[in-house]
Amino acid sequence: MARILLAWELGAGYGHLTMLRRIADAARSRGHDVVYAVRSLDAAADVLGVTAPLFQAPLVGANHTLAGTRLPLGSLPDILYSAGFSHASTLLPAVRGWEMLLEVLRPDVIVADYAPVLTLTAWSFFPVLAVGTGFTLPPRHLAELPPLAPKAGAGIPAARILEVAEEIQALRQAPALGSLGALVGGDRAFAFGLGLFDPYRDLRLEPLYAPLEPLPPPLPPPANLRSVFAYLGGDFPPTMPALVALAEMARERDIRVGTYVRRGSQRLAGALAALGVTVYDHPPPLNDALADHAVVVHHGGIGTASAALAAGRPQVLLSQHLEHGLNGDALARLGCGVTVAGGGDPSLLGRAVATVIDDPAAAARAAAGAAAVSRGQPDGLAPLLDALDGLAGTGGAA
User: Fold this and answer.
1) Residue 295 CB partners (closer than 8 Å, separation 6+)
2) What is the DSSP letter of 282?
3) Residues facing residue 129 across a β-bridge
4) CA-only gyration radius of the chain, Å
5) How many CA atoms lie within 13 A of 342 on its CB side?
6) Which of helix, strand or coil describes residue 2?
7) Could you tell me which CATH class the domain 227-372 is placed in?
8) Are strands 256-262 and 278-279 parallel, antiparallel or unpaired?
9) Residues 6+ apart with CB under 8 A from 135
10) CA triplet 17, 19, 22: central angle to 5 degrees?
């Protein structure tokens, strides 16, 4: 039996935790012990339960070195730069925090989901198996990553990220990683997701495995064709005004709305309920929400986007960041989704939903999108577990 540390640093929502939970369950079935270190204990309690073996992941503090600087995020190096890899002094406290936590936990293998600071800290001391999506795990062989949002202009070069990582390693008298692929991909990497959401699909040499969460089959139309389910984050400031505006529009146009707002306030729940919205205290099973509603509103996370696409439901996205925008672009190319940028006019979300509801061809385009979803991608869970066993020295193929 090996001790497996499953860790998550960057990103938001439940998707990272859902992936780690599925891997943890499978690792337990092989006799391994698991423990988590997560970005958000609150989110982890929602997904994993309050009795799960949880630790708070050491996080990079406010990046004061970039105060007053507006950095367009158009690539993964841009994101890493803004998340602490701009200066060694910004990154070092979190690295020291990980060192201390690793000394306490002494894992045999680390499973890292979007956890570059942990991967840097563990390099050459603890084996790291990186997991994620096509967005968070770019092809390992690329020395430089292409911009994913060309309008953002010239971004941060990968070499700058590696300079900071090498400075940290020199301070620790630890080996340098040598490549961006090692920083985000560890010793082994497994990327999961539908190919259409992989921004590096034309450059990827290694497999992109099928989503770990099984996708629903194409679903028949719901009983009420004028119905919307909104799954949004209450910790995103534009959510509250946009949802209230959506609820007001829906009441005027006789559209039924159900919603689950992650970390939503009682004030927001009360305002929505007063407007006739069904507000869920806990997230309903996504497949049930898809079956019961004609349109899905969400931020653009790959898990919800993939499930809604596979089910054949039109989507309206209230995007928060680069990855959401890219997922929205992929849906738009199929005619299955519309994206509203967060932070704009709150009424735009309701207008977009009304347009989709009133478009008789929207459901047909979504159904065609569902039929086009590839369901023949390889299953990556078994080879991941074999790699885990190999790294832990308990058998299997490394």
Assistant:
1) 227, 228, 229, 313, 314, 315, 316, 353, 356, 357, 362
2) S
3) 111, 188
4) 21
5) 23
6) coil
7) alpha beta
8) parallel
9) 76, 197, 198, 199, 302, 323, 326
10) 105
Of 12, 38, 14, 21, the C-alpha closest to 381 is 21
pLDDT of 76 higher than 90: yes
pLDDT at 282 > cutoff 60: yes
| Count of other CB atoms within 10 angstroms of residue 120 | 27
One-character DSSP codes across 53-115: -EEEPP-----GGGTT------SHHHHHIIIIIT-HHHHHHHHHHHHHHHHHH--SEEEEES-
Looking at residue 65, its amino acid is: T
Given a contact cutoff of 8 angstroms between Cβ atoms, the answer to whether 30 and 4 are in contact is no
What is the per-residue pLDDT for 72?
Answer: 74
| Both structure tokens of 197 | 């959401």
Which amino acid, residue 313? R
CATH 3.40.50.2000 domain residues, the chain: 3-213+378-392, 227-372
Does the domain at 3-213+378-392 match CATH 3.40.50.2000? Answer given as: yes
pTM of this prediction?
Answer: 0.93
From the list 281, 175, 299, 194, the residue with the least C-alpha distance to 237 is 299
- Those residues with Cβ within 8 angstroms of residue 101's Cβ, 6 or more apart along the chain or in another chain: 37, 55, 58
Do residues 107 and 4 touch, judged by C-beta distance below 8 A?
yes
Q: What is the mean pLDDT of residues 361-365?
A: 96
